């Protein structure tokens, strides 16, 4: 599991042990908006924001990489 804050702390992304990645936003007062990606049989282990802070890269235990855009 991992978590990452975007620049200036407007978004928080959490990779959890339930194989989901959740986005919490400032506008929603840090409540779960939606699962970003459901990872079947693959555990998310790290998260990084892109330079523009409009997407996250999720790295998994099986060395897969997923990109999710934050709306």
Structure description:
The chain is mostly beta strands and 71 residues long. The chain contains no helices and seven strands. The strands form two sheets. Strands 1-2-3-4 form a four-stranded antiparallel sheet, with no helix packed on it. Strands 5-6-7 form a three-stranded antiparallel sheet, with no helix packed on it. It is globular and about 30 Å long. The protein starts with a strand and ends with a strand. The model has no long low-confidence stretch (mean pLDDT 80).
- Using only C-alpha atoms, the radius of gyration works out to 11 Å
| Mean pLDDT over the full residue set | 80
- Order of strands side by side in the largest beta sheet? 1-2-3-4
Tell me the overall shape.
globular
Span from first to last CA? 23 Å
The ordered H/E elements are EEEEEEE
Q: Percent helix among the residues? A: under 10%
- How is the biggest beta sheet arranged? 4 strands, antiparallel
* Strands, count: 7
Q: Uncertain runs with pLDDT below 50, 5 residues or more? A: none
> Which structural class should the secondary elements be placed in?
mainly beta
The count of helical stretches stands at: 0
Classify the beta-strand content into a percent band. Answer: over 45%
């Amino acid at each position: 599991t991992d978590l990452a804050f975007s620049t200036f702390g407007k978004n928080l992304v959490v990779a959890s042990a339930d194989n989901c990645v959740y986005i919490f936003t400032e506008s929603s007062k840090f409540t779960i908006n939606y699962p970003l990606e459901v990872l079947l049989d693959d555990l998310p282990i790290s998260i990084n924001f892109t330079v523009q802070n409009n997407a996250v890269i999720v790295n998994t235990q099986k060395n897969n990489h997923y990109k999710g855009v934050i709306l």
